[in-house]
Specification:
The protein has helices at 2-18, 22-28, 54-74, 82-99, 107-134. By secondary structure, the protein is an all-alpha fold. Helix 1 (2-18) runs parallel beside helix 4 and helix 3 crosses helix 5 (107-134). The two termini are 32 Å apart.
């Protein structure tokens, strides 16, 4: 069941990040993909921060929490440590794939996604440590 949830969440992240028009997706629930055979690779390096835009900030929060949830699901709440690395690779892949769907992939989004993954890892590490320390049978 967890694997199915993880896969569904990864697909949802792909749809959110690669659908041509994010606003159209959110407001009208329309998923639309248009393939771009010749993406502009320089877009990955653009630093077009739009701190003044509440829409931009909400999308970055969405990136952070979307990959936070993916890391929790994929790692089975910290039990599979390698899943955190896989999530970072997936974050990078989604940004590259965006370029092929007329979306702007950005390296800073991979960093933002990775911070969400890192937070999930740290929370799992803390909770697993507390759980380990609270069980007398696990201390020996």
């Amino acid at each position: 069941m967890r694997n199915t949830l993880t896969l569904l969440w990864a697909i949802a992240l792909f749809i959110f990040t690669c659908s041509v028009n994010f606003q159209h997706l959110i407001s009208n629930h329309v998923v639309e993909f248009q393939f771009n055979p010749s993406p502009d690779w320089s877009e990955l390096m653009q630093l077009d921060f739009q701190w003044y835009s509440s829409d931009w900030r909400l999308r970055k929060i969405g990136h952070f929490f979307g990959f936070f949830v993916l890391a929790l699901l994929a790692s089975n709440f910290g039990k599979k440590k390698s899943a955190f690395y896989v999530c970072v690779v997936y974050a990078g892949l989604t940004e590259i794939l965006q370029l092929f769907f007329f979306r702007g992939g950005r390296i800073y989004d991979v960093i933002n996604d990775s911070l969400g993954i890192l937070l999930a890892y740290l929370i799992c590490l803390i909770l697993l440590r507390k759980r380990f320390n609270s069980h007398p049978s696990m201390k020996s």
